[in-house]
Specification:
Layout (H helix, E strand, L loop, with lengths): L10 H9 L9 E5 L3 H9 L1 H4 L3 E6 L4 H8 L5 E4 L5 H21 L1
Length: 107
């Protein structure tokens, strides 16, 4: 299948992307990295757009309020800015692999 990678640095660009029509099939994974609590708040404000994504979330800190706000996005995996990002690659690989297995079981 066709593979795409989209990178957005501003929330308004992300919203614009979600407003475009796209095919319903395919794997949609969001890796969201919040640089601070305000950017996290902006992300959670558009969570209706991200509800159908498999989310990986990178939080800016380990504050309980930050963690609670981040969980509003219903992430499959949470990590922090000061951690090794290799684990994101492993989780991403696992999400893709499980989606491929699920789609091959449908065919």
């Amino acid at each position: 299948g066709e593979e795409n990678l989209e990178v957005f640095h501003h929330i308004h660009d992300l919203v614009r992307y979600f407003c475009k029509p796209r095919p319903a099939d395919g794997l949609a994974i969001g890796v969201f990295a919040a640089s601070d609590r305000e950017s996290l708040r902006q992300l959670t404000s558009i969570r209706d757009f991200t509800a159908n994504l498999r989310n990986i979330l990178v939080l800016p800190d380990r504050n309980n309020k930050t963690i609670a706000e981040g969980h509003k996005l219903q992430p499959r995996f949470v990590t922090y800015r000061d951690r090794d990002f290799k684990e994101i690659g492993v989780v991403l690989g696992n999400l893709i692999e499980s989606a491929v297995r699920a789609s091959s079981n449908l065919n």
